[in-house]
Amino acid sequence: MCETIEIVELTMTSVLDEDFSYNNFYEREQFSTENHHNVKLGWIEGVLNPCLLSMWGVMLFLQLPWIVGQAGIRDSLGIIFISTIIIVITTFSLSAISSNGQVKGGGLYFLISRSIGPELGASLGILFAFANTIVAALNTLGFSMSLNTLLQTYNIHFMNSSLVLISIGIASIILMGIICCMGMDDEAKVQNLLVAIIVVAIFDVIIGSIIGPKSLEAKASGFTGFSMDTFLRNWHPDYRSSNNNQETFFTIFAIFFPAVTGIQAGANICGDLKNPSIAIPKGTLWSILISITSYVALVVVTGSVQLREASGDVSQYINGSYLNCSNTNNCKHGLSIIDDNIMQSLSLWPNFIYFGCFAATISTALTSLIAVPKILQRMGQDNVHPFLSYLSVGYGKTNEPYRAHFATVLLASAFMLVGNLNALASFSSSIYLCTYALLNICTFHVAYYNPVGWRPSFKFYNKWLSLFGCFACFVIMFYVDNNMSIIISCLLLLLYAIASRKKYDLNWGSSMQYRKFKNVLKHVYKINSCLYHVKNYSPNILLLSGSLELRKHLVYFASSITKNNGLLMCVNVKQNRITSQEIQNDMKNSMLWLKAYGIKCLYNILDGISLNLAVRMIYLCSYGQLKPNIIFMGFKSDWKNCSDDDLQSYFSIFNVAFDNRIAIMIARFKTAKEKNNKINEEDNTPLIEDGKNRKPKTSIYYLNKNEKHFSLGTKMNKNNVVDIWWLNDDGGLALIITHMLKCCNEWKKCKFRIFGVAKIKENVATEKERLIELLSMYRIEFDAVEVILINSADNHLVKSDQINSEQEFGDMEDMFVHYLHLKNLIESRSRGSSLVILSIVKPNKLFYKLHMYTLDSLTDQLESSIILSGNVLQTITANA
């Protein structure tokens, strides 16, 4: 008989997802990261030109000759060299962070906050916004001074007054702010023009210096043309007083450093770049090379062609006395004199220098005024600092932050009132150094912990170089201005503290989050080699909590013990399978609940598993000293009426614990049962969210966000009594639990009493004395200590109607009969106590109905009780 075989043809599409597409993946990632603007800039228009315009600022034509006159060629080159080292290292750090994935708007703040976290990122963003605003004021003031010099050449002197000069500067800031609000559609073309003007102005100075002086007036002003003698005269520094302050290397450094702080200009508009990860490193490094080369060239040129002092008097030049003007205080020209016309006197076309100066100062101010509102808007949107949320509102199709623009203009105008270039430059230098230090330490932090997501495409960075750059910035910052550095550091700490309150609400995948994981992982691997010592005992509680809302009293009590002493693990075991969505919703609501009440706890859900298997699995999956050493659960009050399978599942938890030498802690809170109706009404109410704050509803346990008192119907105070019946050698667990309660704010005002028992009347006094001495050795204080005589013949507590037959319970063991003898003693002394802790010995055999009956009998008349059983680990010692 022939068998028919069906042949099925398998195609490749049968094993592939029909929706799988690389193009879909690409478009999804692009959509999630890009700001969808019509115009995207390349590395020249978007990074190189803005960086050059930011670095070619007020220093280029106004302050650089004076810096050479003070520091000499040697120290000026040294200042440029140190500045270059700092900005190159910082650029490497910036390039590494900016090339680690696609970035949106928000500039340096966005990069740092997403890398290391909102706390440091937001603090850095505020400082950086301040620094940029000061730079805007600094360059606008330089523009006003240059404009005044130009007008003076035409005998127009109305700007000689400082008040008028500052007023013109404030008006200029307001005008530039309006231009920024209107938008600059042809901004790239304007930047190209400004760069060209500045480059021509630089070559104008160099060519004019090569040609040399053309008149006696130029020679009398100290312009010698290229001369080795002039070069040697200006090689060494000659620090003098300025505005009643003695200049030094670091004060001059502070004045110059803002000239090279434009490296972040490309990062400030990273949302408008075609490919930020490539454009920022490439454009920034090229801008550093070009700008530093220009500064070095101008330092050498001006130091080689212009003397430090000259009278400018032609007759004195003829008789050779024009260089002795310092003796007569008649020096009007020279590098050491604050002379705004030096660059013009050296150039081939003097008037073109004014255009270069205007282009340099205005472009730098505009770059800053454009960048700051974007940073403030992004910070306001992230809601890290609440006072910035007002500035995050955008208007129009381009979402322009007009409020942030107004705040920036207002702040820059306030800084204009300082009216001193050197003071503004020094102030901004301290902030920039602090900002660059934070940028470098952020890069080091991310690279050091090296999360899987740290994959920068820019490879030419080194984490240790970034760390060195951080320390160098901080050291120089304190050398530049010690007082200002302290103020900035305090401000940084304050901003960090304010931002830290949001650290659990913002999840940006920061290295701070990964650091916590790496540290835990590192110590978990080490903990196995750490041997247990009784002095370092910590209660690791595995709480079978079920739903946290329904058994909040168990969670509160366990948290009171483990708050600062051990690990609390709450587990919700469900025997039936539930969907993943249900698990996620339960986890989310439970985390919100724990956070709202300030409870430190690990929470997890196990479904499709029995109780005993869940407990065994959790214990086996734990590690070293993190393994649970106490299983905490509620008393099964329906044990007489429930099904055998349900009861055996409950009993199996005890047997698993005893087999693994884990202590059992059973809570029986009768007050909750008596007020069952009110509990059901309140325990099932979820947390209510008002959008920002999650407010828990008040429960009958008086544990809310403001009070944080655990209570079973009444607040814990000096009228509440806690009784401890220490009845067996449990390793001191009952005493340790009591000590932890006494240290807890919710319980420390209670009256604590400890009870012991003795079988022989003559031993009562001795046992009590020894118990007091023992407690003294353990350094645990009780308000009352009592040892009670127990009559072993008092066995009428075991009633026949409660134990139906020996077949049901088996042979009664003397140990449990002994505990039943204690029933009257415990009830007579502790019935009115707020909490009773009973320490009983674990059974020698498997836990079954007789043991359950014993526990029920001991606690059925008590208001609230905790039963401890089964611990074999020494938890307390009298030794130092």
Question: Could you outline the blueprint of secondary structure elements for this entry?
Answer:
Elements: H1 22-33, H2 43-55, H3 58-98, H4 107-116, H5 118-153, H6 162-182, H7 187-211, H8 216-220, H9 228-233, E1 241-242, E2 245-246, H10 249-256, H11 265-268, H12 276-305, H13 314-319, H14 325-328, H15 342-346, H16 350-382, H17 402-416, H18 421-449, H19 463-480, H20 482-500, H21 511-527, E3 541-544, H22 552-562, E4 568-574, H23 580-597, E5 602-607, H24 611-621, E6 630-634, H25 644-659, E7 663-669, H26 670-674, H27 676-683, E8 688-689, E9 694-695, E10 721-726, H28 733-743, E11 751-758, H29 763-778, E12 784-789, H30 806-809, H31 814-821, H32 823-830, E13 835-840, H33 849-859, E14 864-869
Parallel strand pairs: 3-4, 3-6, 4-5, 6-7, 10-11, 10-13, 11-12, 13-14
Antiparallel strand pairs: 1-2, 7-14, 8-9
Helix pairs in contact: 2-7, 2-12, 2-16, 3-10, 3-12, 3-16, 3-18, 3-19, 4-5, 4-16, 5-6, 5-16, 5-17, 5-18, 5-20, 6-16, 6-17, 7-12, 7-16, 10-18, 16-17, 18-19, 18-20, 19-20, 24-25, 31-33
